[in-house]
Write a sequence for this structure.
């Protein structure tokens, strides 16, 4: 019988630099998705999804355009690593 270990549901988030609940599943079916699940909290991922939606809408990005996908991948990595990512007009990030 397997016992419940709350630490199995936590991750040290590279965005917020603290232990937080992890994503229940990788966001992508590849090594990058597993890396994100292992290093990014659900809170940080949800903040990214909110920012991503704003970037897509503000810049009128098409998700079938390889350049748009490349741009969003670059912005995602910058955001999750606390780098200098592009912010939409009026964007206010979630507090840690």
């Amino acid at each position: 019988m397997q016992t419940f270990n709350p630490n199995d549901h936590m991750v040290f988030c590279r965005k917020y630099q603290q232990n937080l609940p992890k994503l229940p599943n990788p966001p992508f079916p590849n090594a990058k998705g597993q890396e994100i699940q292992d290093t990014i909290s659900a809170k940080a991922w949800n903040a990214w999804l909110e920012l991503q939606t704003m970037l897509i809408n503000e810049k009128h990005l098409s998700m079938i355009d390889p350049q748009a996908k490349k741009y969003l991948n670059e912005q995602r990595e910058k955001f999750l690593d606390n780098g200098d990512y592009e912010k939409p007009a009026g964007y206010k990030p979630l507090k840690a």
